Amino acid sequence: MDVLDVATGTGNAALPAVRRGARVTGLDLVPELLDVARERVADLGFEVDWVEGDAEELPFEGASFDRVLSTFGHMFAPRHERAAAELVRVCRPGGAIGFCCWTSDGVGGRLFSTLGSYMPPLPPFASPPSRWGSEDHIRKLLADNVSSLEFERHAITFQDDSPETWVTLMEESAGPLISVRTDLGNEWSALRADLLRVFEEANAADDGSLRFDQEYQLTIARL
Fold first, then answer.
1. Which of 61, 66, 111, 148 has a CA that sits 20 to 30 A from residue 85's CA?
2. Fold of 2-222
3. Long-range CB contact pairs, 211-214, < 8 A, 24+
4. pLDDT digits (tens, 9 = 90+) for 154-199
């Protein structure tokens, strides 16, 4: 199969796909993350076509892929209608689109709220990323252009040495946080302290380490 991983980041969905024998293309807007993805796939001895590009303007012909994936990536594109239309456009008839997005009522939602409190108001054309975790919102975006929609709720358990080391990892590797840190400049330290508080409050570990569950919604759209 031809598989596209939209907003691939460091390749977390692209790598499992190529291991299963797919011809994989990974696209991301942040070149630093693609550099990490290249190193990861090279270490494993596989080949992936890494492309720098925007989820709202995918640089591919229509009906190019059997599967179109995104794991916590395309949700950060501000124009949801355009991003959704692009996912459908590049997927072949009979193919499927699958994506995971954080829900608004979990740790991910609290993270988005914290980030939003430091950022300028969204422009009229933009929607917050947390809306991709809503079934109603996705139905409005996709129902008219796909044959079926399926939804599942799951949670990922994250663990690290401490809340502090987790926030350090995020600010160095999460594409949206890399962008926010650059935009905020001197204000980043205050936001970082608030992000640390989010994970301290969510922490279920009592030994100084970090362990928390973060809920997400899996959407599968079939063409």
1. 111
2. Rossmann fold (3.40.50)
3. 211/157, 211/158, 211/159, 212/107, 212/157, 212/158, 213/106, 213/107, 213/155, 213/156, 213/157, 213/158, 214/102, 214/106, 214/107, 214/108, 214/155, 214/156, 214/158
4. 999 999 999 999 999 988 877 778 878 888 888 899 999 999 999 9
- DSSP reduced 3-state for 1: coil
Q: Where are the domains of the chain?
A: 2-222
Tally of residues, the chain: 223
Instruction: Tell me how far CA of residue 75 lies from CA of 79, 159, 169, 221, in angstroms.
Output: 9, 24, 20, 15
| Per-residue pLDDT, 59 | 98
